């Protein structure tokens, strides 16, 4: 019989949960050290008590940077099994979290499939699902309808929910007054904004926040405070709307922690590279060290088709400066629903950003694999190199498709017999170096 509600409640009572123990082992730290961070809210272990097949992970700036992959059934891709295959291949490529953004049909069977088969953390955005679930127009939904969907997701075993609690009726005036270039680009944020505009009522996720926290506490659902006003272009970055919402997210973080509910705070968006670090520091200060979950940041607006790269650049700098969790961005961002190859490219780009940041942050053990790769390269041991690679399949396919013309299988076709590694190995071994 468990004598705690959430991981935070347990940590505050000095109880080392199986999840705290498992995460501490993965992060090369003691359970006691991790427990303190969970108690303070600096690490969130998103672990709904109904997600029984979960392989728990911790999210916090001092831990390995985690990545999230957005998937889900949609009108254009409604086969549960195909979507589930994408989920499992994302997990195999290293995604620690899957956000189910299903937007078609009855979403509950797929959500339940995820929480009964997928070991990664599962997140959802209940406001999207509300329209689908009730099959009614947005304006006809009530605050009660939204809260009931949150409860349903909690019962289904969802580990974290994005809630756009930070915009209020005041935001409507601000958006009109400050004339942003891209207004609101958060899908959930725009729905909440539209609902408030059409009904004249206050944001239900803000107004009934305490009731929502009771649900989250009961099932141990982590609240991921959505950033409805995240900038959608460089010109809107770090503006009044974004910062004003962030201040409210800081207040809401504190209120969640008072309920023993774990929190992550979501962040930008499109941000010029020179503003990324400052954004991380401001969030850490205003939200008292709560884990920061960023979408990108995308550092230039002009690369549709390559936004996995623009976001990996921003993501690496963000994670190096305090972001704990990166939401992947695919080459299809701003253009279309990502296909299987886009998903893979997005995951690899995010993994590179996360790993580069972990090395820079000095996360224990983070660089070990790079050192192994260097040793394999020095020995021209290609199988050992593939074993260290983030994407061994692609690495091997490239080498195999362009092997050296002559049979000197120890080198590659980049330099052939001019291979610096080969020349140095032979020279240092006192061997004759044949070039021609
Ligand atoms: S041939 Fe050139 S690129 Fe290839 S392993 Fe040798 S030094 Fe590296």
Automatic annotation (TrEMBL):
Q: Name one GO biological process term.
A: thiamine diphosphate biosynthetic process
Quote the record's binding site residues for substrate: 70, 99, 128, 164, 186-188, 227-230, 266, 293
Q: What Pfam family is a match, any one?
A: ThiC_Rad_SAM
- GO molecular function: any one? phosphomethylpyrimidine synthase activity
Q: Name one GO cellular component term.
A: cytosol
Pathway assignment reads: Cofactor biosynthesis; thiamine diphosphate biosynthesis
Q: Which UniProt keywords apply?
A: 4Fe-4S, Iron, Iron-sulfur, Lyase, Metal-binding, S-adenosyl-L-methionine, Thiamine biosynthesis, Zinc
Q: What EC number(s) does its UniProt record assign?
A: 4.1.99.17
Q: Where does [4Fe-4S] cluster bind?
A: 412, 415, 419
Kindly list the cofactors needed. [4Fe-4S] cluster
Q: Which reactions does this protein catalyse?
A: 5-amino-1-(5-phospho-beta-D-ribosyl)imidazole + S-adenosyl-L-methionine = 4-amino-2-methyl-5-(phosphooxymethyl)pyrimidine + CO + 5'-deoxyadenosine + formate + L-methionine + 3 H(+)
Question: For binding Zn(2+), which residues are annotated in this chain's numbering?
Answer: 270, 334
Question: Cofactor binding mode, per the note?
Answer: Binds 1 [4Fe-4S] cluster per subunit. The cluster is coordinated with 3 cysteines and an exchangeable S-adenosyl-L-methionine.
Q: Which HAMAP family match?
A: ThiC
**Entry similarity comment:** Belongs to the ThiC family.
Protein's job = Catalyzes the synthesis of the hydroxymethylpyrimidine phosphate (HMP-P) moiety of thiamine from aminoimidazole ribotide (AIR) in a radical S-adenosyl-L-methionine (SAM)-dependent reaction.
Q: What is this protein called?
A: Phosphomethylpyrimidine synthase
Q: Which gene encodes it?
A: thiC
């Amino acid at each position: 019989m468990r004598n705690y509600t959430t991981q935070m409640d347990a940590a505050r009572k000095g109880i080392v949960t199986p999840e705290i123990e498992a995460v501490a082992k993965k992060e090369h730290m003691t359970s006691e050290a991790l427990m303190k961070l969970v108690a303070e809210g600096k690490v969130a272990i998103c672990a709904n008590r109904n997600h029984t097949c979960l392989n728990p992970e911790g999210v916090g700036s001092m831990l390995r940077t985690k990545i999230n992959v957005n998937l889900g059934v949609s009108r254009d891709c409604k086969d549960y099994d195909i979507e589930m295959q994408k989920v499992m291949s994302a997990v195999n490529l290293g995604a620690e979290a899957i956000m189910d953004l299903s937007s078609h049909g009855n979403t509950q069977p797929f959500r339940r499939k995820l929480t009964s088969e997928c070991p990664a953390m599962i997140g959802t955005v209940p406001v999207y699902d509300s329209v689908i679930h009730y099959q009614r127009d947005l304006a006809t939904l009530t605050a009660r309808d939204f809260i009931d969907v949150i409860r349903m997701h909690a019962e289904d075993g969802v580990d974290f929910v994005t809630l756009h609690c930070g915009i209020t009726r005041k935001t409507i005036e601000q958006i009109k007054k400050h004339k942003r270039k891209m207004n609101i680009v958060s899908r959930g944020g725009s729905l909440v904004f539209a609902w408030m505009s059409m009904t004249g009522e206050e944001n239900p996720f803000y107004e009934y926040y305490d009731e929502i926290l009771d649900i989250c506490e009961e099932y141990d659902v982590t609240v991921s405070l959505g950033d409805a006003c995240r900038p959608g272009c460089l010109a809107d970055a770090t503006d009044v709307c974004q910062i004003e919402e962030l201040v409210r997210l800081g207040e809401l973080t504190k209120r969640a922690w008072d309920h023993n509910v774990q929190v992550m705070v979501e962040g930008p968006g499109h941000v010029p590279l020179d503003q990324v670090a400052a954004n991380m520091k401001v969030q850490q200060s205003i939200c008292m060290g709560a884990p920061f979950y960023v979408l990108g940041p995308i550092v230039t607006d002009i690369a549709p088709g390559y936004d996995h790269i623009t976001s990996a650049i921003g993501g690496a700098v963000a994670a190096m400066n305090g972001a704990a969790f990166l939401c992947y961005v695919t080459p299809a961002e701003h253009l279309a629903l990502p296909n299987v190859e886009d998903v893979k490219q997005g995951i690899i780009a995010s993994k590179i950003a996360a790993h580069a940041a972990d090395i820079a942050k000095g996360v224990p053990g983070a660089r070990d694999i790079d050192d192994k790769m260097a040793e394999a390269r020095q020995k021209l041991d290609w199988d050992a190199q593939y074993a260290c690679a983030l994407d061994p399949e692609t690495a091997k396919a490239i080498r195999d498709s362009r092997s050296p013309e002559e049979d000197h299988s120890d080198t590659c076709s980049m330099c052939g017999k001019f291979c610096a590694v080969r020349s140095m190995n032979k020279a240092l071994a006192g061997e004759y170096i044949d070039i021609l």
